[in-house]
Amino acid sequence: EDQVTQSPEALRLQEGESSSLNCSYTVSGLRGLFWYRQDPGKGPEFLFTLYSAGEEKEKERLKATLTKKESFLHITAPKPEDSATYLCAVPVNTGFQKLVFGTGTRLLVSP
Amino acid sequence: NAGVTQTPKFRILKIGQSMTLQCAQDMNHNYMYWYRQDPGMGLKLIYYSVGAGITDKGEVPNGYNVSRSTTEDFPLRLELAAPSQTSVYFCASSLPGEEQYFGPGTRLTVT
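^ inputs. structure came back:
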């Protein structure tokens, strides 16, 4: 069964304290992986797409990496505005219409 | 561009009532999707469409119906609402094989 697991469920950081979020998956044939950010009461906001193992992408304080079994979202020197739930999702068909989402990591960054 | 819009933002239904959740996008995306998000659970795909007149079931389609008569609109119909349909509903759209863009959500309570 296709499955996406995110850890930790929740993470509390001090401003400036770097850390990493994990997304591990079991799918038959990796086609790509998406990272989203979701603020309370809002829809998910797209961050990154990674297509193959070894690929990395960066945006401001965020850096996403991908291996054959998992992806990491590294947060460098976070600020309070980085507080959100971070979701990862994996397509399970070639057309990318069907995504399996993880349950997310709730990140809280304190000043 | 407004992106993906959803109406209403909130709704309370009585058991057995019906309603339609509206979704529209102005990005000329071929693909559109409906998800539900329950507390502590990942987003679950209800239905999706790859173009006008073409729809298909996702992971949790029971109790819902969709239609797609135009590229822009993708309404979700709930017939005979049940408490198990209490959730937050998100509509999304995408180009083929690319990231999905989400609307702001509709919070539905069935009592």
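The interface with chain B takes residues 4, 34, 36, 41-46, 49, 87, 89, 95-104 of chain A (CB under 8 Å). DSSP finds no helices and eleven strands in chain A.
thumbs up if we can close this ticket
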